[in-house]
Amino acid sequence: MRYESDRTPDYAPPNDPWEEHQASEDAQSYLTLYYCEDEISKYPVREVTKVNDNKSDPNLETMSYGLCSTCTRDIRSGLVRNNRPYLFFCTNFKGERHLAGYYHIGWYSLGPPLLTNYRNGSIQDDYRLVADEMKWIYPPISFETIADETGFDGILTGFRKKLVTPETTDALLSLFEDREDYSQQYLDEIQRLELINKRYHEFRYPTWERKAGFDWESVQSYVGTMQTEEDDETKEILETKMEEMDIDFSLIASEGVSDWFCLICNHDFENKAPLKLCPNCDNNGGIIPARAINE
């Protein structure tokens, strides 16, 4: 499935703030793991119904990765900085590990600074990716099949992320060539799972308090197209709160956190993964772990 820019708003690629990704076919690519539905879904789509952690990535609806979530910041940064062309998506499905799809990265942008990316005295860069092509297949390909058909035994080792050579990238792509593109079926399944959430929890993404699904029309706040005066006002609020509140920066990293606090609107909420936007005020950058605030 190809990205269609003529059907997107002016803040989507290839427009600002997005830059064309200078993918080098001679560079290594990434394998990465994602959480998938493997009990109530035929297709291994992301785990939309995961309790207290509704998944938004990989976001097939916008063909993006890291736009709406904080998943694998290190992979996204490494991909941009090293001109890596492909991101292959693997998951545990029906009790075994499989390769389900890939993105060929077309664009990237640098997102607003997130306090949850604070490490060693500074806030690390947070890149967002958009693919110009994606393909998702069914059934997904088991790791054992990949090893047998390509000779790539390295896929059988445990990993969260793994770099693969250009030669291995070509071998993986060859497995996709003879298989039908199920991207549309994956998209339809994501919507079905969202409606299950909505029926029982009022929201399509309950822990996000989000009633809408995802498409380019609904993610403007994630892209970060605020006017300068709005951005300055948010920064002023954050700076004031940081001065007034006793915050322990050693506890601001997001690992193992489920309770969060928004410095902009004082909203507290629960989620097992950090969100980019506050579910109450839709501002970004001001969410911190509640544990970092000394009462």
Task: Kindly describe this structure.
The structure is a single chain. The protein has 295 residues and is α+β, with helices and mostly antiparallel strands. It folds into 2 domains: 6-220, no CATH class; 228-292, no CATH class. It has helices at 73-81, 143-150, 166-177, 183-201, 220-223, 228-244; strands spanning 19-20, 29-33, 64-65, 86-93, 96-110, 118-119, 122-123, 127-142, 161-164, 259-262, 268-270, 287-289. Strands 1, 2, 3, 4, 5, 8 and 9 form a 7-stranded mixed β-sheet that branches. It has a 3-stranded antiparallel β-sheet with strand order 11-10-12, with no helix packed on it. Strands 6-7 form a two-stranded antiparallel sheet. Residues 1-22 are annotated as: Disordered.
What does this entry show, briefly?
The protein is an alpha+beta fold. The chain has helices spanning about 75-80, 145-150, 165-175, 185-200, 220-225, 230-245; strands at about 20, 30-35, 65, 85-95, 95-110, 120, 120-125, 125-140, 160-165, 260, 270, 285-290. Helices cover about 25% and strands about 20% of the residues.
Quick tags:
7-stranded mixed β-sheet; 3-stranded antiparallel β-sheet; alpha+beta; 6 helices; 22% strand; 295 residues; 2 domains
Map the helices and strands.
Elements lengths: L18 E2 L8 E5 L30 E2 L7 H9 L4 E8 L2 E15 L7 E2 L2 E2 L3 E16 H8 L10 E4 L1 H12 L5 H19 L18 H4 L4 H17 L14 E4 L5 E3 L16 E3 L6
Parallel strand pairs: 2-4
Antiparallel strand pairs: 1-5, 2-9, 3-8, 4-5, 5-8, 6-7, 10-11, 10-12
